């Protein structure tokens, strides 16, 4: 007996025709990808075209970003309020769905992303420093006000870091269902490469998910 391989196989260069109903397989053998307003609808194992996701510029140096993205229904976050964070984390880990996405960025958008990532790190570290600094100064000065100030700065910097980190994402899932993922973050020119869904809001009724057998959805 060998361990089941939970990692998806390496992406083949072009066609991935797993488990997608024949009616949704484009005739030209390309991967079925649509746009739905500002979002892309893609199979959960997808290699996007060799163009910058943000500005649609053709990528000549072959730069690729490959990432496993996770998603669960946002209403699950209510579990944080009741019964609590631990239960939320356990449930979220159990029910989350995943997609593996390959995409590209042009030089310009790569460097802009690097700047945002660096900014996120600096602000994130600053947020921890504010908290520790507040406690330390408060102990030295024997004045509780510095703890409050440190906490306030911590919250402000934390929010800033979360916003910057979010902006640094290339694409992010807003929904997953069946064998498909909805991704936001692509620029309008890139989105225009793909047909609009029109009235197909749910391109989904699928065969069992063969991509991630451990997570087959009902
Ligand atoms: Zn670009």
Bound molecules: zinc ion
**Order of strands, widest sheet:** 1-2-7-6
Global structural class: alpha+beta
Instruction: Count every helix, treating DSSP H or I runs of 4 or more residues as helices.
Output: 5
Separation, N- and C-terminal Cα atoms: 27 Å
β-sheet strand percentage: 15-25%
Q: What are its keywords?
A:
218 residues; alpha+beta; 4-stranded antiparallel β-sheet; 3-stranded mixed β-sheet; 19% strand; disordered N terminus; disordered C terminus; binds zinc ion
Mind sketching the topology for me?
Layout: E1 34-36, E2 39-43, E3 45-52, E4 65-71, H1 78-81, H2 85-95, E5 97-104, H3 107-141, H4 145-167, E6 172-177, E7 180-184, H5 188-191
Parallel strand pairs: 3-5
Antiparallel strand pairs: 1-2, 2-7, 4-5, 6-7
Helix pairs in contact: 3-4
Zinc ion binds at residues 52, 54-55, 57, 105-106, 108-109.
What does this entry look like structurally?
The chain has 5 helices and 7 strands. Strand 6 and strand 7 form a beta hairpin. With 218 residues, the protein is an alpha+beta fold. The structure holds zinc ion. Zinc ion binds next to helix 3.
Sum this structure up briefly.
This protein is of the alpha+beta class and 218 residues long. It has five helices and seven strands.
């Amino acid at each position: 007996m060998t361990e089941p391989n939970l990692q998806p196989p390496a992406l083949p260069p072009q066609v991935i025709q797993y488990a997608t109903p024949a009616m949704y397989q484009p005739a030209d053998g390309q991967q079925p990808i649509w746009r739905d307003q500002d979002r892309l609808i893609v199979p959960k194992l997808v290699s996007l075209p060799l163009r910058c996701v943000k500005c649609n510029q053709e990528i000549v140096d072959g730069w690729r970003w490959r990432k496993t993205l996770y998603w669960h229904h946002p209403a699950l976050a209510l579990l944080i309020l009741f019964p609590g964070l631990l239960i939320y984390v356990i449930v979220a880990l159990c029910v989350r769905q995943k997609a593996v996405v390959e995409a590209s960025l042009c030089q310009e958008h790569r460097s802009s992303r690097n700047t945002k990532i660096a900014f996120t790190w600096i602000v994130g570290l600053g947020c921890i420093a504010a908290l520790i600094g507040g406690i330390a100064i408060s102990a030295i000065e024997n004045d509780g006000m510095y703890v409050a100030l440190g906490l306030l700065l911590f919250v402000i910097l934390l929010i800033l870091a979360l916003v910057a980190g979010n902006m640094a994402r290339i694409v992010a899932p807003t929904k997953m269902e069946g064998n498909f993922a909805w991704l936001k973050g692509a620029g309008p020119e890139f989105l225009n490469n793909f047909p609009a869904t029109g009235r197909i809001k749910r391109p989904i009724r699928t065969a069992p998910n063969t991509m991630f057998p451990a997570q087959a959805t009902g």
